[in-house]
Specification:
- This protein is α/β, with parallel strands linked by helices.
- The chain is built from twelve helices and eight strands.
- An eight-stranded parallel beta sheet has the order 7-6-5-4-3-2-1-8.
- The longest helix has 20 residues.
- The chain starts with a strand and ends with a helix.
- The model has no long low-confidence stretch (mean pLDDT 96).
């Protein structure tokens, strides 16, 4: 059995003061929901504030991005050693990073290797655009993102990953893939690609999340599917009430 996993990606939202308020409102309920792995992924500027509030709990903390070099003349970037004192997780390859900041499967692969070398668990994002979906290219696009992004990893490294399938057309739009369609992609494409790379036993251990307009109203239906092991939640993670309801659905 793969333990359910729900992560909240705050994106470019919440000042440190606002982060403190949100986490304070989350803590009591989230702390009691230990049958699910819960992870908060605030902006870099909020990490230390949130770390202090989560101290003594089993709620995880993640960053939203990371560079692959350990140090150097890379103005504005954040390195693995800068994260390892605060974070256990890092989101890598999010579609917004690919769309707006030119990230590719190759750069995502470098970041994954760097994160693993520092003991940080990557939450690796994959997903097709609306145009690719309409053209019937979803399977090919998603399969290639898995294979190229994870190229060179060993089965042992693969088992440490969390993968998030996020159809780009469903992120922040209010649209969502049907639970059955999302499950089919995660089972027949994503997990199949992981099995091709790492073997069936390792692939069965890797948690695959769904992301894209996950809300309290639809979360339970997604989580009831065989190969949807949780969610990477965007907008709904900015509300304590909504995020708690999604985690309870995973329970």
């Amino acid at each position: 059995m793969r333990k359910p996993f729900v992560a909240g990606n705050w994106k470019m939202n919440k000042t440190p003061v606002e982060a403190r308020d949100l986490v304070t409102n989350l803590l009591l309920d989230l702390t009691a929901l230990g049958t699910v792995d819960r992870v908060l992924c605030p902006p870099f500027t909020d990490l230390w504030v949130v770390k202090e509030l989560l101290a003594g709990t089993d709620i995880g903390l993640g960053a939203q991005n990371m560079y692959w070099e350990s140090s150097g003349a890379f103005t504005g970037e954040i390195s693995p050693p800068m994260l390892v004192e605060t974070c256990q997780f890092v989101i890598l390859g999010h579609s917004e990073r690919r769309q707006f900041f030119g990230e590719t499967d190759e750069t995502v692969n470098k970041k994954i290797n760097a994160a693993l070398s520092y003991g940080i668990t990557p939450i690796v994002c994959i997903g097709e655009s609306l145009e690719e979906n309409k053209a019937g290219k979803t399977s090919d696009v998603v399969y290639d993102q898995v294979r190229n992004g994870l190229e060179g990893l060993t089965p042992e490294q693969g088992e440490k990953l969390v993968v998030a399938y996020e159809p780009i057309w469903a992120i922040g739009t209010g649209l969502a893939a049907t639970p059955a369609d999302a499950n089919a992609i995660q089972k027949d494409v994503v997990r199949a690609a992981l099995a091709d790379m790492f073997g069936g036993d390792s692939a069965e251990k890797i948690r695959i999340l769904y992301g894209g307009s996950v809300k309290p109203a639809n979360a339970a239906e997604f989580f009831s599917q065989s190969d949807i092991d949780g969610a990477l939640v965007g907008g709904a993670s900015l509300s304590a009430e909504s995020f708690i309801a999604i985690v309870k659905a995973a329970v």
